Task: structure prediction
Amino acid sequence: MLGVLDLFNETTPVWSAEAVAEALDVSVPTAYRYVKLLVASGLLQRSAESQYSLGPRIIVLDHFIRAGDPVLQHAIPFMQELVATTGFDCVISALYGQQLLDTHREYGSLPADLGYGRGRPRPLFLGGAPKVILSCFTPSALHKVFDQHQQEIAQAGLPTEWSAFRKYYSSIRKAGHYLSNGELESNLAALAAPIQQANGTVLGAISVVTTVQRMAVIDVAKVAALVMRCAADIAIRVP
Result:
């Protein structure tokens, strides 16, 4: 039944019970039972012509996710400090399975026009946040990602041979940060660092985001040091 929720995405935000039945390979009566229970719980809502969309309970749960996220509980004051120092937007991102999501954003003096935001999955191989997160993977974990995403890797212009791919991410890990210049969105630049605990656990990434033009005139080394220090301050406080 919970698999019904996985069907909803940007291209198909509305489903009929018959379409659910076909997609999940279950009977139509079973699909109707599923959606009825999900409507009763508030996870779905019925719209016109027996169509179903995600329900208001999702919004309530998102509030509780924010309140219970241990990274955000410690990160927000440091993000605000980073915004005050740089004037740039600051974004926290995390990897859930193999989906990269932004979980919180603090706005700078000239907020960037981001096409991605909280809850909208981002490409796994474009932009600073996913690259610094993947750079912290063990070789075996990174190899698994490499094997499963050959097409996306090639489309992103990354090395399609394993040794070169591994070397690419190793260089990011050694630097401790990554500057993305127009990768994800052509007019935006982001400088990201991984939020990594002493035991190697990667909690996510923190990025400062601004226009390509503004990033071009700053002291990148100085801002990178600020972002990496902020990431370390957050990581050490998360239990």
Q: What stands out?
A: The mean pLDDT is 94.
